[in-house]
Automatic annotation (TrEMBL):
InterPro entries: Acyl_CoA_acyltransferase (IPR016181), NMT (IPR000903), NMT_C (IPR022677), NMT_CS (IPR022678), NMT_N (IPR022676). Residues 246-424 form the Glycylpeptide N-tetradecanoyltransferase C-terminal domain. Residues 1-14, 23-34 have a biased composition (Polar residues). It is an enzyme of class 2 (transferase). GO terms for cellular component: cytoplasm. Its EC number is 2.3.1.97. It catalyses: N-terminal glycyl-[protein] + tetradecanoyl-CoA = N-tetradecanoylglycyl-[protein] + CoA + H(+). This is Glycylpeptide N-tetradecanoyltransferase. One of its GO terms (molecular function) is glycylpeptide N-tetradecanoyltransferase activity.
Length: 436
């Protein structure tokens, strides 16, 4: 159960067609599982095995294509009395701590650890910079367990040096709704990367999840582990092309000038769709119905109820923005779009310190064409001073990416399930789940 989005920071886009993506661990053309398996076998012959993951109940590379294996849990639940009651042992100079995300002081410590040590792009130009408000939102959904917010402190200084979290979720896989933990924010201080803390942290969060009688998990990583259920590509839409080029996020295209580039990405001043407005509390039941109906078509998707929709999708300043289309005639809610705010620190640039990025979240189109709905989302994101709008090619996103001038980035995201086997890898368009 790990989230380690190593090298999956979408901030390393060079969103022009001349960009050479050969540096990708798994480039767009090669993201089929057969290629991943071949690379895995090549790496094994070089002695690079995934010792930890090969000991875990996850899909194994050797089993790919074995149609005799059943879908569903890989190992049955054990009796709760048989779950290890004591935390796993850490190296002697460190101790476990449970991070109370309701405490401003603790939240600040977590923020500082992630800000300085979390995911960077391959070229060390950008680093995720989750805000404290975002962390509070991400880690305190309905029914969350404080015990799943796990830190490691240095015994002598009490400094927080590592962190991993889980939050509860109901995720539907085909027709089965499964209680799971979504694992995220695995972060170890840069100076402690050689201490092998990550495997023991993963085992500890797994143990605490098991204590709540939950036996499955979902997580993402920017690296290939045994075995992705799907591999998604990040795409980027410039909103502030001059700044993106200035900080090295994008490059000026061949035969393009700055003024032509700015003109290329220019957007209208206001949304085009009649009845396009902010989502409000009173819209929660209608949005829940819309979303549940839409998500039912995907193989893997969250099973949202009204409490989840209120928490995850009701607009929160600088965290999540949600808009809907209310028919001016019938007042029916027909369409919905949303994005969350995840800035990145810009490392080593004298003029700019923060890249403000919007990430496409859940979008539902029934009456308004998705292309038009997402163009309106780009317009409101631009009005809110976002520099770039990022989207994965999940759900129906692929239908608007090229048309709306998104370019493919370097970042890829592999999705995983813990202790749950899906016999065949999914296409990104079969996935209805966005993990933060």
């Amino acid at each position: 159960m790990a989230d380690n989005k190593n090298n999956s920071l979408p901030g390393s886009s060079k969103d022009n067609p001349d960009h050479d993506s050969e540096t990708n661990p798994v480039s767009k053309e090669n993201s089929s599982l057969s290629t991943i398996v071949r690379r895995f076998k090549d790496s094994v012959s070089l002695g690079k095995t995934h010792k930890f993951w090969e000991s875990q109940p996850v899909g194994q590379f050797k089993d790919i294509g074995d149609s005799n294996l059943p879908e569903g849990p890989i190992e049955p639940p054990t009796l709760l009395s048989e779950v290890k009651q004591e935390p796993y042992n850490l190296p002697s100079q460190y101790e476990w701590t449970t991070c109370d995300m309701e405490s401003d002081e603790t939240c600040r410590e977590v923020y500082d650890l992630l800000k300085c040590n979390y995911v960077e792009d391959d070229e060390n130009m950008f680093r995720f910079n989750y805000s404290q408000e975002f962390l509070t939102w991400a880690l305190r959904p309905p029914g969350y367990y404080r015990s799943w917010h796990i830190g490691v402190r240095a015994k002598s200084s009490k400094k927080l040096v590592a962190f991993i979290t889980g939050v509860p979720a109901r995720i539907r896989v085909r027709d089965e709704v499964v209680k799971m933990a979504e694992i995220n924010f695995l972060c170890v201080h840069k100076k402690l990367r050689s201490k092998r803390l990550a495997p023991v942290m993963i085992k500890e969060v797994t143990r605490r999840v098991h204590l709540e009688n939950i036996w499955q998990a979902a997580y993402t990583a920017g690296v290939v582990l045994p075995t992705p259920i799907t591999t998604c590509q990040y795409w980027h839409r410039s909103l502030n092309p001059k700044k993106l080029i200035d900080v090295g996020f994008s490059r000026l295209g061949a035969r393009m000038t700055m003024s032509r580039t700015i003109k290329l990405y220019k957007l209208p001043d206001s949304p085009a769709t009649p009845g396009f407005r902010n989502m409000e509390l009173r819209d929660v039941p209608a949005v829940t119905r819309l979303l549940r109906n839409y998500l039912s078509q995907f193989v893997v998707a969250p099973d949202f109820d009204e409490n989840d929709v209120e928490h995850w999708l009701l607009p929160t300043e600088n965290v999540v923005d949600s808009y809907l289309v209310e028919s001016p005639e019938t007042h029916e809610i027909t369409d919905f779009c949303s994005f969350y705010t995840l800035p990145s620190s810009i490392l080593g640039n004298q003029n700019h310190s923060t890249l403000k990025a919007a990430y496409s979240y859940y979008n539902v189109s029934t009456k308004t064409p998705l292309l038009q709905l997402m163009n309106d989302a780009l317009i409101v994101a631009k009005q809110k001073d976002f520099d770039v709008f990022n989207a994965l090619d999940v759900m129906h996103n692929e239908s608007f990416l090229k048309e709306l001038k998104f370019g493919p980035g370097d970042g890829q995201l592999h999705y995983y399930l813990y202790n749950y086997r899906i016999r065949h890898a999914l296409r990104p368009s079969e996935l209805g789940l966005v993990l933060l």
